[in-house]
Amino acid sequence: MKKFFLSVLSSFTGTWLALCLFGIVAVIVSIAMLINIGSSNFSSGIVSTSDNSLLVLDLQGEIIEYTNDQAPDVMTVLNGDFKQPKSLKDLINGIKCGADDDNVKAMYIDCGVVSAAPATLNSLREAIVDFKSKGKKVYAYGETMTQGAYYVATAADSLFMNPHGTLQLSGLGGHTPYFKKLLDKFGIEFQVVKVGTYKSAVEPYILEHMSEPARAQLDTLYNAMWSKIKGEIAASRKIHSHEIDSLINNEFILCRKLNVALDNGLVDGLLYRHEMDSRLAEMMGVEKADNIEKVDPTNLASGNISKANQPHIAVVYACGGIDDGDASGIVSTDLVPLIFDLKDNENVEGLILRVNSPGGSAYGSEQIWEALEQFKKTDKPFIVSMGDYAASGGYYISCGADSIFADPLTVTGSIGIFGLIPNGHELLTDKLGVNFELVATNPQAMFPNLINPLTTEQYNAMQRMVEDGYDLFTQRVADGRGLSQDYVKQIGEGRVWSAEKALEIGLVDRIGTLDAAIKYMAQKLSYGDTPNVVAYPDAKDSFWTYMAMLENGNAAQLAQKLGLRSQEEAMLMQLRWLIQRPMIQARMADMVIKL
Questions:
Q1: What is the pLDDT of the chain when averaged over all its residues?
Q2: Which of 48, 93, 324, 330 has the CB geometry, 3.0–4.6 Å to 364, for a possible disulfide?
Q3: Could you write out the DSSP letters of every residue in 127-183?
Q4: Cα separation of 50 and 438, whole Å?
Q5: Where are the alpha helices (DSSP H) in 404-455?
Q6: DSSP states along 64-130
Q7: Tally of CB atoms within 10 A around 388
Q8: Among 33-37, 440-444, 518-522, which range has the highest average pLDDT?
Q9: Tell me: the pLDDT tens digits for 569-583?
Q10: How many other CB atoms sit within 10 Å of the CB of residue 11?
């Protein structure tokens, strides 16, 4: 009965969606079955290279950390951009294979509109730099090139653009949506208990605008990240970094003809695509572009098969929000058994946890932390490699590692705990006219609930609970990092840090990509230059994977079938998600960093 009352509000906002979805379940399942039967048609075969091959990196679309079976977010489907994302793991492994393959003579980066966080793009860029270190040339070309694509492309030996293309160079920024006015319209109030001045994850639900502490920490974070990004661009293009800011701020390079970019050293030449094809053919020593043997890095990666039945380094991908129930992302009830299996697996000689998470459930984070502590009792080395984000709960599960690597553009820290308790009294009683009568043996029998606001005593009890959670979190960090708990609380307070600052204050040990962490682990295990590395969990294609591979136009049809006809409906689904999340969270503020 208590669970019923806790879910009443979410049911009001989601019931009609369920009715829409129910009627098309059979259709979706049927399509999925048909696609699975013919899935071999979509699979990329293992490719063997021939002499004088060109590795072609298609730098367009979304890049995620690791292949998964997660459904797309609602807004992606509504915008008609539903395509299968590329896997950073596969791209980097493919580039490494190409670097070691004598048949692969060069790389061509075909740039466009790429969607990825800064640390992901940095990892890709460093893989390209490593490719060049083998004495192989890299060429890049773009028509409409986003800033993220340009950042990666500047690692090339030569960079060309279409004479009438667009270079979207604008600096680094991010946006955070604030929902209070929307919640007020629905008659929903979020009651907040938290620890940490900078724990701004709760702000979008209780404020209309960003607080000064939240703005200050993001300003510091973005400036630190931008300093590195523009510094690397400037070094590659042999210009001063202040010139980049000047071109953005004063010249509005985004809106200028590309001869301005050429005159200022941002690109090496302006060519139409057919001219670039001819240039490539000349570079590769063939008569025309059609004669170039092109190889996709993803296909090369598929041929690089690790052997789990032999001694190996286990790389466990922990990506997404942390939840202790049935959800996509990092599910503790799935990850904990996997860690125990690896602990008992004699072929696993070391564990690298690849964390790309903004956090989530405090309870789920504790369960994963404890499982990793059990792994450490085997005396097998345990290392963490941080991706785009390893914050709040993402840092919680990382802090006990023997050594922590952070990508130069990782966002980490956010050591803090908060609770969000929704109050739907205005919606249910005042707007919908639903009156709830309580009969109970104890005054707190229905605490907490969505029907009435917290009393002072109830609020104080929740605050104590959150403070206990924060005390446990900071103690875990203190023990794992060899720091005093008082110091951890000082650098905690929910504040996010750049990788360089995290290194300075002792939250991480080294700056480096996943590849650097693997090399470090291989040295510890005396594996040499070619360690046997096995990724966990197994990547599995799903219904969504195959839907993304269908002909153009299926996104709109899919949105229609799912009943997603308006952004208002998407907001309702977002609201339902907020209400159904675990009450006590170790999670950083939601942010989208534009690069």
A1: 84
A2: 324
A3: HHHHHHTTT-EEEEEEEEEEHHHHHHHTTSSEEEEEEEEEEE----EEE----HHHH
A4: 76
A5: 425
A6: ESS---PPPPHHHHHTT---PPEEHHHHHHHHHHHHH-TTEEEEEEEEEEEE--HHHHHHHHHHHHH
A7: 27
A8: 518-522
A9: 555 555 555 555 566
A10: 12
CB burial of 286-315 (b: ≥16 within 10 Å; e: otherwise) equals eeebeebeebbbbbbbbeeeeeeeeebbbb
Structure-token match 């490539």, residue found: 280
Instruction: Say which amino acid occupies 528.
Output: G
Top CATH class, 305-420+448-587? alpha beta
DSSP helix/strand/coil, 406: strand
The first and second tokens of residue 328, run together, are 């996509």
Q: Is residue 448 reached through a cis peptide bond, with omega within 30 degrees of 0 on the bond before it?
A: yes
Residue 307 and residue 534 in contact, taking contact as beta carbons nearer than 8 Å: yes
Q: Please tell me the distance from the alpha carbon of residue 60 to that of residue 43, in angstroms, as a whole number.
A: 20
- Mean pLDDT of all residues in 47-52: 79
The Cα–Cα gap between 337 and 232 comes to 41
Instruction: For residues 518 and 170, give the distance between their C-alpha atoms in angstroms, rounded to a whole number.
Output: 34
pLDDT at 25: 38
* Amino acid residing at 433: G
Q: β-strands 312-319, 533-536: how paired?
A: parallel
Calpha distance 192→208 (Å, rounded): 15
CB atoms within 10 A of CB 107: 25
What is the per-residue pLDDT for 80? Answer: 54
497 sits in which H/E element? strand 496-498
**Position 34 confidence tier, pLDDT thresholds 50, 70, 90:** very low
Q: Where are the domains of the chain?
A: 50-169+240-302, 305-420+448-587
Domain 50-169+240-302 superfamily per CATH: 2-enoyl-CoA Hydratase; Chain A, domain 1 (3.90.226.10)
Angle, CA of 250, 252 and 256, to the nearest 5°: 130
Tell me if 517 sits within 8 A of 352, measured CB to CB: yes
Predicted confidence (pLDDT) per residue in 508-517, tens digit: 999 999 999 9
Tell me whether domains 50-169+240-302 and 305-420+448-587 share a fold.
yes
Counting beta carbons within 10 angstroms of the beta carbon of residue 440, is it exposed (0 to 12), middle (13 to 18) or buried (19 or more)?
A: exposed
Confidence category of residue 327, pLDDT binned at 50, 70, 90: low
Tell which residue, 374, 379, 309, has the closest CA to residue 347.
Answer: 309
- Measured between alpha carbons, how far is 416 from 393 in angstroms, rounded to an integer? 9
Q: Identify the residue whose tokens are 């319209």.
A: 185
> Is the alpha carbon torsion for 442, 444, 446, 451 positive or negative?
positive
Lowest mean pLDDT among 128-137, 156-165, 282-291: 282-291
22-31, 112-121, 327-336, 552-561 — most confident range? 112-121
Two tokens at 50?
A: 């021939």
Whether the Cβ atoms of residue 5 and residue 446 lie closer than 8 Å to each other: yes
User: Please, are residues 216 and 243 in contact by the beta-carbon 8 Å criterion?
Assistant: no
Mean per-residue pLDDT, 517-542: 88
